[in-house]
Amino acid sequence: MNFYILSNNSHDISTLQTIIESDFSNSIVGIDSTIENAYDDLLQLRVDVLLINCDEDAPTDGLKLIERLHSVHINPNIIMIGAARNQSIKEDAYRQGIDFYLEKPLNPIEVQHVTRLVASYRYLITKMAEISKITSSFATPLKQPQSQHRIQTERVYSLLRFLGIASEKGNTDIIRIIRVMIEQNVSFSNLDFERDLSLDPQNKKITFQRIRRAIRIGISNLAAMCNEYPENEILFEYANSLFEYQNVSIEIQKIRHNDVPRNQISIQHFFDGLLQESLSDSSK
User: Fold this and answer.
1) What residue ranges in the chain does DSSP mark as E strands?
2) How far apart are CA 248 and CA 221, in angstroms?
3) pLDDT (tens digit, 9 = 90+) per residue, 231-265?
4) Interior CA angle at 218 toward 217 and 224, to 5°?
5) pTM of the full predicted structure?
6) Which residue, 41, 82, 126, 189, is the most exposed by fewest CB within 10 angstroms?
7) Which of 27-36, 37-46, 78-87, 132-141 has the lowest mean pLDDT?
8) Spatial distance between the Cα atoms of 281 and 74, rounded to a whole number of angstroms
9) Where are the domains of the chain?
10) Is the Cβ–Cβ distance between 132 and 162 less than 8 Å?
11) Which residues pair with 50 in a beta bridge?
C-alpha cells in the first residue's frame, strides 16, 4: 500500500512513519506540511491511503483538501488526525467520506490497528474492482463476443476465487454442476444428476459432502469480510444471494465469539445464487 502523510508535526510524522513502514508491504510515497504541495503531489502520485494531521490553527484545511481531491476524482482512503475537542471537524470529516478519525495524542497501538484495517479494506476494494473488470469485459476486438455460457462460467470461476474456495476439493464438483445448469439454463432442483452428471444416489451423496465442506469455507471467508467491512454492499449482496444472509450473520456472530448454533446451508440456494450471479453483469 502507498501512504502519503500531510502533517506539520515532526513527532507525529515520526510515529506514523515508524508504524507504517514496520509492514514491509507498505511504502510512504510522500510527506509534506502544506495543503497546496500535498494536492499537487496527489495529482501525480498513486496514493492508496492519505493521512491528514489537522493543523490546530486551521483545522478545516484538511476538509478543503478532501473536497478538492473529490472534485478531480482522486479518492484515496483517508485517515484524519485531530484534537478530541474538534468534534464538529470530526463529524464533517466523516460526512466527507474519511475512513477513521484518530484523536491526539496518538496511541501507537490504535494507529497500527487503524492503518492495517484501512490498508486491508483498500486491498479488498482493489481486488473486487479487478474481478469486476475481468468479468465484465469479455468482448473481443473484432466484436465477436465469446459464448454466453463461457462468460457465465468465467464469472463463476471469479466468484469462487473471491470466496477462497477455488482450491478446495469440492470446487471441481461445483464447476461440473454449475456448467450443466448454465448450459441447460435450469435451476438446481431441475437437474437430472444421474443422466447429466452420471451421479447415482451414493456418488451424489459423496459429491454433496465435498461441496458442503467447500461451501462452509466460503461462507466463513465471506462472513469474515462482512465483519471487517460492514458497509460494503457487494459483500452483503453475495451473502444474501449465495448463502442467505441469516447464515452469514450466524458466522459473523461466531467470529465475535458468540455461542450460536449453525444452520444447515442450502446447496440448492448456493447453486441457484451462483447461476443468478453469473448472469448479473451480462448486460454490461
Assistant:
1) 2-6, 27-32, 49-53, 77-82, 100-103
2) 10
3) 888 888 889 999 988 899 999 998 888 888 877 88
4) 90
5) 0.49
6) 189
7) 132-141
8) 26
9) 2-126, 138-279
10) no
11) 4, 78
